[in-house]
Amino acid sequence: MDVLSAAGAIERAGGSVIHMELGEPSAPTPRRIRDAAKRALDGDRVSYTEALGRGALRERIGRHYRDTYGVTVDPARIVVTTGSSAGFVLAFLALFEPGARVAVSAPGYPAYRNIFAALGIEAVPVPLDDANGWTITGAAVERLHAEAPLAGVLAMSPANPSGVTMKRETLAALAGACRRLGLWFVSDEIYHGLTYGVAAETALAFDDEAVIVNSFSKYYCMTGWRIGWLVLPERLVRGVERLAQNLYISPPYLSQVAAEAAFDAIDELEAIKAGYAANRDLFLNELPKMGLGKGPAADGAFYLYIDVSHLTDDSLALSGAILRKAGVAVTPGLDFDPDNGGRFIRLSYAGSQADCREAVSRLYSFVTANA
Question: Across-strand partners of 214?
């Protein structure tokens, strides 16, 4: 957000900035989704819904699990949320007491740590690197739990910021370790649908007690609609419902109507995804030519987590220099990993193909001038 603010100041002064700092699709929400919301706005009363969400949407999400993963999910276990952000708050409040220790990846989505801190929960970092394939492993969880008891594990696949999709066997082993140790397993699956040459697996395929967090923001291009969902073990649903009733009343009605239509917009969404794939190919081909080709093997989401340790150990200063001198906004790795993120920057390739080509040109000029 600070990078976005600085970029905005440059633009207000007449400068040109290519935005690669935000984890947000640049494409508009598909027309089929917007049309559904327009019809609801014109014809229906926009009101509260059940705190758990509209029954029709919960049914449709349940069908999505059967069609996509071959997994049966009772709609009664699905909770529609005001974005995945609200889903995390509800899940963490239901699962963990203050003082609980929860394993999270480093690097990882920074809001995890911040929500934990607000709720009095201790985030236990699991350092990721080439040796563990940039994913939390069952063996790592067992070691951490032996050192001091954990209450749960939070993993994301495909991951932000690395773009790494967890292999089926790795996810199965992680879920199995959590079951053996009696730990809650929270699986963040908000980038499902956005993989390239691999398939993303849901943790429910390996552990029916896993807590799933998902969202319509990323693949479905609905960030501003603030609509997501949880899949919970049956025994947690009533507690989460009471929390939702008091904290949020209900998710937005219009967004729920639109989200139901999102499952029928796959053709348009796959065309958008093809644009991401082309952008990804562009960067994977061009970044090594400028010495920026080292980092996790990203096969999901729309991010590249780039090792810049040969240039600096201060990614915050480097991202500022890239913004000022090249007009390209990127995110410093310190956002995602306070300990080792000074050696990385994150680049989002969710923008237009024209912007990505221009960003490559500007980055090449920057690196050449500052080599």
Answer: 229
- For β-strands 303-307 and 122-127, DSSP reports them as unpaired
The answer to whether 42 and 367 have CB atoms below 8 angstroms apart is: no
Cα separation, 284 vs 353, whole angstroms: 14
Q: CA nearest 141: which of 130, 128, 152?
A: 152
Peptide bond into 98 cis (omega under 30): no
Report the predicted TM-score, pTM, of the whole model to 2 decimal places.
0.96
Give backbone dihedrals phi and psi of 341, rounded to 5 degrees, phi first: -70, -10
343 contacts: CB under 8 Å, gap ≥ 6: 307, 308, 309, 312, 313, 315, 333
H helices present in 182-233, as ranges: none
Q: Is 292 helix (H, G, I), strand (E, B) or coil?
A: coil
The answer to whether the beta carbons of residues 212 and 202 sit under 8 Å apart is yes
* Average pLDDT taken over every residue of the chain: 96
Sign of CA dihedral 219, 223, 202, 348: positive
**259-282 pLDDT tens trace:** 999 999 999 999 999 999 999 999
Q: What is the DSSP letter of 300?
A: B
301 closest CA partner among 203, 192, 224, 226: 192
Determine phi and psi for 47, rounding to 5 degrees: -135, 180
Beta-carbon contacts of residue 203 (< 8 Å; ≥ 6 apart): 155, 171, 175, 185, 187, 189, 210, 212
Backbone angles phi, psi at 213, to 5 degrees: -115, 130
Q: Are 106 and 340 in contact (CB under 8 A)?
A: yes
Enter the DSSP assignment of 200.
Answer: P
Local confidence band at 1 (pLDDT 50, 70, 90 cut-offs): confident
Task: Give the closest residue to 336 by CA, choosing from 181, 77, 53, 128.
Answer: 128
Spatial CB neighbours of 191, under 8 Å, sequence gap ≥ 6 = 156, 157, 158, 159, 160, 200, 218, 219, 300, 301
Alpha-carbon gap, residue 118 to 178, rounded angstroms:
25
Contact 233, 41 (CB under 8 A): no
